[in-house]
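Minutes, project check-in
Item: structure for the 155-residue chain
Input as provided by the requester:
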Amino acid sequence: MDRLDVFNNILRDGLVPCFYHVDEGTCLEALRIGYENGLRALEFTNRGVGAYRIFSVMRHYSTQHCPDLALGAGTIGDKAVHGPLPKTKFLVAGDVTTKRDNLEKWFTAGATAVGLCSQLFKKDWLNTRSFLDLGGLIKEVVDTIHQIKNPAKHV
């Protein structure tokens, strides 16, 4: 997958969730559940000892089992929307929730995509391995964003 493919996935889906967990198995299961429920971009946040090793395992798994998933590591530093740069594509992170009205606010304001971290990958769900709950919320958010970004297709 090249940079343009990654960019187009983000533009289409409007979502780049990010998370970190110390347990490799939990990370792999969260990645699998996310992919099965429509995620095509995912950020693994480098927050702890062993994050690089876990990311490497996740990258290997995603290459074999999630061929059209853009898995990356990084941070988003600015959540400004358009202002003096009206043609710029923005991924907004911070103050973003999984609620429809919040998502509509950001996309109406000009966001191209949103970044969701602990609002989506809830720490207690990861710790208790509540992957059915995680998968349900991911599907709900992906579907909601698709409806907001493409209202004509969802009438």
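Outcome recorded: The longest strand covers residues 41-44.
No further action items on this chain.
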